[in-house]
Amino acid sequence: MTPVQRGYLFAVASSLGLGLAIAAARAAYEGGATPLAISPVRAVLLAVMLGLVCVARRRSLRLPQRDMLSCLGLGVLAAHMFYGNIAAVETIPVGLAALCFFVYPPLVGALSAALDRRWPSAAVMGALTLAFAGVALALGVGFDDLDSSGVFLGVSAGTACAISVLWLARGMAHADPLPVMFWFSAVAAAILVPVGLLSGGARLPVTSMGWVACLAVVLCQVSSIPLYYAAVRLAGAETTAMLNNLQPLTSIFAAWALYDERLGLWQWGGAVMVLGGILWMQTVLRRPPRWCDRA
Question: How many angstroms separate the CA atoms of 268 and 249, rounded?
């Protein structure tokens, strides 16, 4: 199996795991847990696991000062991404939370164009418009009482994901990914643990099903996040983002199977627009650039 093929496999596996984690978070909250209890645990376990892997593989945790500063910034983004991605499920439906987070693939494409100093083509602009119009349709029709804080958490977590993906792909491609992931996970843990303890918002489950769901969330995300960033390194940011289209579909169908949570016709229409716009945009971005893409 070639490195690129491994990247494809990692991207698909991470998409399924992250999609299931969002759905499992709903059961954890119904069992009495809170996002400020789950997100610090997953950050700590992820950092510990990556540290042990580095030691076992004799990978040095030492990085140049510039890379350490990048890990600090990536850790801040990761802290919000770890929290916001599952906290949105506490107040809005699982499928809509997944769609909110999924603003990140269009943002990866748009930010890539900006960083490359090339004006997006008409096709890319059309795809971006379709994707964001789909999000607006899914959130705006039939959900007049939708909690705005849940929408904000999902969208802002997706934005943090887009920035971190490009930061890793462009600014940290030269570095060993394992110690990089260890350090930004450790930074995220150093932020989330005291926030959870000092805010008083960290509450553990009170039911056995809540504990099972919490364990599922943590295990899915701790295993999926390293796979995702490994896929970014092996297959590229845009390719990984395209394969990650499985994530919201996994969340939507898991929510239907576990909680009988059904999206209405307008929400399904919005979901189709979002995924269609993402696939359209990513297909265009993978083509050789034309005259209109030059700076």
Answer: 11
Average pLDDT over residues 90-102: 84
**Sequence-ordered alpha helix ranges (H) in the chain:** 3-30, 35-56, 65-87, 94-101, 104-115, 122-140, 148-166, 177-199, 208-235, 237-243, 246-259, 265-285
Single-letter code of the amino acid located at 56: A
| Confidence tier at 214 by pLDDT (50, 70, 90) | very high
The beta-carbon contacts of 107-112 under 8 Å, at least 24 apart in sequence, are 107/158, 107/159, 107/162, 107/163, 108/162, 108/165, 108/166, 108/237, 108/238, 108/241, 109/238, 109/241, 109/281, 109/282, 109/285, 111/162, 111/163, 111/166, 112/166, 112/237, 112/238, 112/285
Retrieve residue 104's tokens: 């990140």
Measure Cα distances from 151 to 50, 102, 135, 146, 206 in Å. Answer: 31, 12, 10, 8, 27
Q: What is the pLDDT of residues 14-25, one digit of tens each?
A: 889 988 998 999
Q: Which residues, other chains included, contact 145 with Cβ-Cβ below 8 Å and sequence gap of 6+?
A: none
CA–CA separation, 171 and 188 (whole Å): 19
Q: Count how many residues are written for the chain.
A: 295
Give the whole-angstrom CA distance, residue 104 versus residue 108: 6
Contact 271/135 with Cβ under 8 angstroms?
no
Give CA angle at 239 (237, 240), nearest 5°.
65
User: How many angstroms separate the first and last alpha carbons of the chain?
Assistant: 37
- pTM value > 0.70: yes
Complete DSSP assignment for 153-187: HHHHHHHHHHHHHHIIIIISTTS-HHHHHHHHHHH
Angle at CA of residue 228, ends 31 and 278, nearest 5°:
95
